[in-house]
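Suppose a colleague, Dr. K., hands you the sequence of a protein chain of 240 amino acids and asks what its three-dimensional shape might be. Before reaching for any lab equipment, you can write down a predicted structure in token form. Begin with the sequence itself:
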Amino acid sequence: MVIMKFFFIYFTAAFLFFISSVSFAKDGINIVMLHPDLSFSIKIKHKTSDDYYLQILYTERSKSDVLDNIKLIQKSIQYPMAMQPYREGYRVYVGPLKGSNISSVRKLLLSIGYDEFLLRHINNKSDFFIPEAILFKKTGRIEDNDIIIPFNENGSLARFSSLDIDTICQSINVNSTVALFSQYRGILSSLSFISDIGAQNRFWLGSKKTITRVSDKLVIKDVDDHARYPVICLINKSFS
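The predicted structure, expressed as tokens, is then:
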């Protein structure tokens, strides 16, 4: 089995995100996808020592358009940014920020045309915890794609809810996708894959659907959104 360098998804204790928040790490761009259920309170005043997010816009543009917009903003401001699915689009934030940095960040945003802000503070911090590091291993290729599988540090397959699978794959590369049915046919028939990963595992095919190999057939099963299964991510090398 060919093993690529490992990518770690981690957050420091100061920022305390949901376990399903993941980082986009491409070309030095610092973008975090926040879980849709992560709730905030709106603040007028701020404490210099606390952590905040500065919401700068809400848009119903596509995820790829929002990521491109964030990359342009980060050419002018050297701060982390985040996006969060909300209704039919995305909220876009600068942060997390210490309260002591908010005034200077506002000035930078004004200089590039962003003049509307909402100061947001994470609710119920005690409910959040640091996720276990996830390791991404390259386990082969199919067509023009590298096959990447998330593992836990202890070597077991990492398991996710279907709400997390797209952002988990895109944390490797913004063009990374969950494997399709036609691609699973080739992947789960590969002797090298079976010897490395095993033949009895069930993987996410998409929202509420999983797939496994039984004898020479692929079997699809409907499951609940909150069930947890491994996922196979593919990176098309022409985009990486």
